[in-house]
Amino acid sequence: MTDAAIIALMYADIDGELEGEGRAVLARRLLEDPECRALYNELQGLCQRLDALPLAAVPDDLRTTVLAQLPAPPLRARTPRLVPRFSGQRLAAVAAGVGVLVGMAAWLHAGSLGRAGTAEMAGTMLAYAPTRTTRLVSAPLPPAVGAGRVALVRTAAGLALALEVDAEHRSFELQVSDAAGPVALGAPIPAAGFPNGVRPLPATVSSAAPFTVSFRSQDQLLGTVVLDGKSGR
Amino acid sequence: MVRRSLAGERGAFDLLVVRYQKPVYNAALRMLHHREDARDAAQTAFLKAYEHLGKYDHGYRFYSWLYRIVLNEAIDVLGRRKGTDSSAVEIVDEAPGPEAIASGDQSLQALEQALQRLPAEQRAVIVLRHHLQLSYEAMAETLGLPEKTVKSRLYDARQALRVLLRDERVV
């Protein structure tokens, strides 16, 4: 395995996203190689410092300025260009080509040259076509943590926990408990961080049985939420 | 809240702004390293989100859609600043960010400066992962890229940061 591949495994582990064989390979290397351990510590330190970068206070008038500028009849304006530009001109060209093909297919199906909205729909599909995640059940967060919800979702990779936490919240750690016992879920989340996103659940957690999500802060239990994917509650 | 906003409840959209203004503004600030530009980018992002809320697919995460809008907005600003390739290195201010100064931590200040030396697309993945705390999957959803590409870009960004920090003898 190349150095780059090992470093990639280290980053994935630090991000809490390394599973299965990769984790075993990394554990073996860390056990055998002191240089590898030193490198892991360096990378972990870098990531921790990035996590710790302080956040700025929001300008007082941001919210009021936005609200004051909302158009009177909402949601009726023209579509802006929201296709991501991260992949550069090549992606844009491919997207345009696909858009034309989809538009032509829709036109042929409709049998009408003047049918409005087909090209717009194709553009929308391209602009907003991320991986689909199915939400099975959700519940409000414990009040001691902050406002928001926690949800059990099914992703392409399996079951996961999705956090939708408001900007203001306490620092906390997540723990999932099912019949197999408690398991910590990812790294502690600082109060300044935005934890919204999905965290893969251990394979022992099933959508067919209720399980408990505990929110902790320095060994103090902030609250628990029970999610039951089967009941859909 | 999104559905209520769509139904014309401005109060519901107000709640969305309250909920997301901090991450949206900070994402713009990290990308642009300029308070006024970040404020404008965040403001424009919310207005665009409101304007196009009807096109938002409820099967996806709202914040992914919103973060994508603000990142695109920030990249537009970077492009306008340079008038050329927005993915090129863009340095507005050599000084550390106000938050790093306030913290008084020199290594954080160096990190802030190194971040500003990254290309915009690498800075974006650092923002999504470390400031917005998104998973790989949510980052891929936000950027509209395969997860593999996101991991690779995050790897490149972190390695570039290591080199920059080492050059400044911080690591």
| Backbone shape of chain B | globular
Please tally the β strands of chain B and state the result. 0
Please give the CATH class of chain B.
Mainly Alpha
Helix and strand succession of chain A? HHHHHHEEEEEEEE
Helical stretch tally of chain B? 9
Task: Supply the CATH architecture of chain B.
Answer: Orthogonal Bundle
Mean pLDDT of chain B: 85
Question: Which structural class should the secondary elements of chain A be placed in?
Answer: alpha+beta
Content-based structural category of chain B: mainly alpha
Count of separate structural domains of chain A:
3
How many alpha or pi helices of chain A?
Answer: 6
Low-confidence stretches of chain B: 85-96
Run of helices and strands of chain B:
HHHHHHHHH
Notes on the structure:
- The complex is a heterodimer of chains A (233) and B (171).
- Chain A is α+β, with helices and mostly antiparallel strands and 233 residues long.
- In chain A, strand 4 (173-178) and strand 5 (181-184) form a beta hairpin.
- Chain A is globular, with a radius of gyration of 23 Å.
- In chain A, helix 2 (20-32) packs across helix 3 (34-52).
- The two termini of chain A are 46 Å apart.
- In chain A, the strands form two sheets. A four-stranded antiparallel β-sheet of chain A has the order 1-2-3-6, with no helix packed on it. In chain A, strands 5-4-7-8 form a four-stranded antiparallel β-sheet, with no helix packed on it.
- Chain A folds into three domains: 3-52, no CATH class; 88-127, no CATH class; 134-227.
- Helix content of chain A is 36%, strand content 25%.
- Chain B is mainly α.
- Chain B has one domain: Orthogonal Bundle (Rna Polymerase Sigma Factor, Chain: A).
- Chain B is built from nine helices and no strands.
- Chains A and B meet through helix 1, helix 3, helix 4, strand 3 and strand 6 of A and helix 2, helix 3, helix 4, helix 5 and helix 6 of B.
